[in-house]
Amino acid sequence: MTVGPQPYQYVVLRCVPRVDREEFLNVGVVLYCQAADYLNAVWSVDRDRLVSLDARIDVDQVCEALAFVDRVCAGDERAGEAARQPIGTRFGFLKAPRSTVVQPGPVHGGVTDDPARQLEHLLERLVG
After folding, report:
1. How do 102-104 and 108-112 pair as beta strands?
2. Range 85-121 burial, b when 16+ CB lie within 10 A, else e
3. Where do the structural domains in the chain lie, given as residue ranges?
4. Residues 30/42, Cβ–Cβ less than 8 Å
């Protein structure tokens, strides 16, 4: 049985080295598809581009923040209480605005037959 296109939501993860300057670099995407019970993140950090925004940025800290997002998506207990929540609640946690160096952008949506493939497409298109 073919299910057909399912709605999904996604947020782009932005690295904001200096909040006061409001400059950011897209570094990842989180995609949630309720119908497919799918929540995942992919990311790619361009160290040179981040350092060009702020020479003092700790790129390893940015990567660790993105690895935390991975753990929340996977329900990994190392991510604490957020990872123990139902999948929709985990997406809600990840899309919530925050003032840390890695911030989610606005929520967008679409439809897809393959959430994993769509997530890779969004990474290529929005992060590079």
Report:
1. unpaired
2. eeeeebbebbbeeeeebbbbbeeeeeebeebeebbee
3. 17-126
4. no
Instruction: Give per-residue pLDDT as tens, 93-128.
Output: 999 988 789 999 999 999 999 999 999 999 999 998
32: Cβ contacts below 8 Å, ≥ 6 apart: 8, 9, 10, 38, 39, 87, 88, 91
Q: pLDDT tens, 58-73?
A: 999 999 999 999 999 9
User: What pTM was estimated for this model as a whole?
Assistant: 0.94
11 touches 107 (CB < 8 A): yes
Give the span between the Cα atoms of 65 and 90, in whole angstroms: 15
Question: What residue type is 90 in one-letter code?
Answer: R
**Amino acid identity for residue 30 in this structure:** V
